[in-house]
Amino acid sequence: MPSPVLRFAPSPNGRLHLGHAYSALLNAAFAAEMRGRLLLRLEDIDPLRCRPDLAAAVIDDLSWLGLSFEAPVRRQSEHMADYRAVLDGLRERGLAYPCFCSRRAVAAAASGSDPDGAPLYPGTCRGRPDAGALIAAGHPHAWRLDGEAARAQARDGLAVTVFAAPGATSVRPAAPARWGDAVIARKDVPTSYHLAVVWDDAVQGVSHVVRGRDLDAATDLHVLLQALLGLPGPAYHHHALIRDPAGEKLSKSLGSVALAALRREGVTAPEVWRRLGFRPGPGGAPILIR
């Protein structure tokens, strides 16, 4: 059987913090325990916030942490043509439609929220007769998945495979309907996080996804996209989040202390490992102290 493949996939839109370090170390620990491969992917689809210097800083921080990944590093910004082709395929099947609504308009019309807490899109632009004319006139637009049509075309019994430890898997039903008509391509690029991550995991042969618990609900949408695109579904492990003293999850947007700042203060990589509950194992690979 092929070796398991895991990946750590940060966005280079800020400096890595302890939450990223925990996720990277856990991916490395699982890869070592499974005798699998470990990949690094830079999810840099945001053309404004993701910068080359931040991408270089991500790689530098991970090297300082003592982690190594297979080359080459996959950068999503280099694969926009592939994402556009995937999007075009969904459009041709009637599974995606253009959306011209502003965030304010969506918030004003929404009657609920999606699992991320964002206003649930009410389908305002679905079937809009002037959509073609608006696109031809250059009006900015995103592309949304037609959730109802997508679920009708996908196979029955969508499910998420979950693993708690190597060899310990279970299955739970997926509920993609709670995402409504999710954005699968932004106004500025021909993809979104959801579409790109599903495609990349398949292209890279990722068999096990280890990421934060805040992305658990997104997996329901991801298995729907995998079914529509005929892609294999990895097994998922969503780990607990590292939080600050106030109980808030660490976040770049909140200015959580970066690894770079800890390094300047003289904190060493072994200290970070210990703080996050890891110790070196055979060959220096991290082991989670369970």
Automatic annotation (TrEMBL):
It comes from the Bacteria. Keywords: Aminoacyl-tRNA synthetase, ATP-binding, Ligase, Metal-binding, Nucleotide-binding, Protein biosynthesis, Zinc. GO terms for cellular component: cytosol. GO terms for biological process: glutamyl-tRNA aminoacylation. Its EC number is 6.1.1.-. Pfam families: tRNA-synt_1c (PF00749). It is an enzyme of class 6 (ligase). Residues 6-258 form the Glutamyl/glutaminyl-tRNA synthetase class Ib catalytic domain. One of its GO terms (molecular function) is ATP binding. Belongs to the class-I aminoacyl-tRNA synthetase family. This is tRNA glutamyl-Q(34) synthetase GluQRS.
